[in-house]
Amino acid sequence: MSASREARETGTTAESAETPKSPAGRDDITVVHLMRHGEVHNPDGLLYGRLPGYHLSELGRQMAERVADHLSSRDITYVVSSPLERAQETATPIAKAHGLDIATDGRLIEADNVFQGKAFGVGDGALRRPENWKHLVNPFKPSWGEPYIEQVVRMMSALEAARDAARGHEAVCVSHQLPIWIVRSFVERRRLWHDPRKRQCTLASLTSFTFMGDKIVSVGYTEPARDLVPAHLLAGAKPVKGNGKAFGA
User: Fold this and answer.
1) Taken in order 61, 63, 64, 69, is the CA torsion positive or negative?
2) Segment Disordered: which positions (predicted)?
3) Is 139 strand, coil or helix?
4) Which is deepest, 20, 36, 40, 99, by most CB within 10 Å?
5) Residue 157: which residues within 8 A CB-CB, separation 6 or more?
6) 247 — phi, psi (to 5°)?
């Protein structure tokens, strides 16, 4: 059975819950945490997307350390990251706390976007330029970047690879807001097109998928560094005009 079909047939819940007990004789309960990276140093407020050279801010490093502390007592046996610097830097304290090396998986990378490198704030930036309007014709695909379904396919594949690497234990995969939200939406059988302001995927948050064998049986969400996250970057917050980091990446 394909990963996509299996995900469609899986019943899940968005509630954070205890890991279910295995049936007698089975020890293959595996938890894969999809973690969004910490805050990025981005003084110009650009949509940085897949561009290299964007590193965690000092606050972002504090967020990464906070999550490492939060996970220190968990049975983490595998840590893997998107190849982008901000994700690698977020993974570092977690891997260190468990004496692990960081694996890199290109499938965890940020979604491609034609607006990367441009200002993308509310009421200013790239959306005001008529030459960019052609990229906005189909928000359901979306027409301005990597199709949602392609994100689902690669992220499900990365999830399953992490599950296999940590079978019977726990794994941490450091990725980016949109791919994490899209794969969660798919698993929870929600439509993939959405209002970016309503993504429940705050900086340094954990979206945790519990597998029993090869099937996802629950989805949980936690924000270990919530008190460190600027208010306008919390899920559901009203964007600040002129702040290109309003939706993060």
Assistant:
1) positive
2) 1-26
3) coil
4) 36
5) 3, 107
6) -105, -5
Cα separation of 63 and 227, whole Å?
9
CB hemisphere CA count around 175 (13 angstroms)? 32
- Its pTM stands at 0.83
**Residue 221: exposure state from Cβ atoms within 10 A (0-12, 13-18, ≥19):** middle
Domain boundaries, the chain: 26-228
Residue 88 DSSP one-character state: H
- Residue 42 makes CB contacts below 8 A (sequence gap 6+) with 48, 54, 57, 244, 245
- For 24, 25, 97, the CA distances from 181, given in Å and listed in that order, are 34, 34, 27
The string of pLDDT tens digits covering residues 87-117 is: 999 999 999 999 999 999 999 999 998 888 8
Phi then psi for 120, rounded to 5 degrees? Answer: -140, 40
Helix (H) or strand (E) holding 66: helix 58-70
Residue length of the chain: 249
Structure tokens at 115: 């607006």
Among residues 215, 216, 212, which one has the least CA distance to residue 25? 212
d(CA 77, CA 130): 50
Name the residue among 80, 54, 8 with its Cα closest to residue 248. 54
pLDDT 10s digits, 166-213: 999 999 999 999 999 999 999 999 999 998 888 999 999 999 999 999
Three-state SS at 1: coil
Q: Which residues pair with residue 81 across a beta bridge?
A: 104, 174
So what's the architecture of 26-228 in CATH?
3-Layer(aba) Sandwich (3.40)
